[in-house]
Amino acid sequence: MKRFHVHVSVDDLDESVRFYSALFAAGPSVRQSDYAKWMLDDPRINFAISTHRQPVGVNHLGFQVDSGEELRGLNAQLLAADSQLVQENEQACCYARSDKYWVTDPTGIAWETFHTLGNIPVYGEDTPVFNHGASAVPVQNQASTGKSACCVPAE
Question: Residue 18: is its pLDDT beyond 50?
C-alpha cells in the first residue's frame, strides 16, 4: 500500500514543528535537530521537514511503499511518466536507508518513490539526484562529481 510523501524545506524547524503538530493534532514520529517526520494514517502521508534544503518550500513529493516488490512493480509506471528515471539502492538519507526511484514532473518537481529498509542514526549523505524543484534534468551523481550531500540542490 502506498503512502503519499511530502518533504518541505524550512528555515525554523522548531516553529515548523509547532505549526505542523498543531495542524496534524499529533507530534512528529521522528524528531532530530535538523529534521522531523509525521507518519499519519488520516490522511495516509509521510510528511517530513528539514533545514538541509534550500530554497525554503516544497522540496519534493513522492510515494513510500511497503515492500521492494511493490517498488519494483512501479518501475514501468514511473518510466512511462519520465524516461530519465534514476534508481538508487540502499541510499542513506533522512535518518533512513532506502531503495528509491526518482523522476521529475514537467514543471521540474522531483518525485521520489521509495521503500525504507531501516533507520540509521544520522541524516545521511545521499547523492543529490535532482535539483529539487529547480530542474527537470538529473544532476550528476556522486561518482562523477566526487561530492556528497544528502538531498541538497546542486550548486
Answer: yes
CA distance 114 to 85: 13
Residue 120's Cβ-side half-sphere holds a number of Cα atoms within 13 Å equal to: 16
Measure the CA–CA gap between 100 and 35, rounded to whole angstroms: 20
Q: In 3-state terms, the chain is what percent helix, strand and coil (to 5)?
A: 20, 40, 40
Cell of 22: 498543531
Please say whether the dihedral angle defined by the alpha carbons of residues 41, 61, 151 and 48, taken in this order, is positive or negative: negative
pLDDT digits (tens, 9 = 90+) for 128-149: 555 554 544 554 433 333 444 4
Q: What is the largest distance, in Å, between two alpha-carbon atoms of the chain?
A: 44
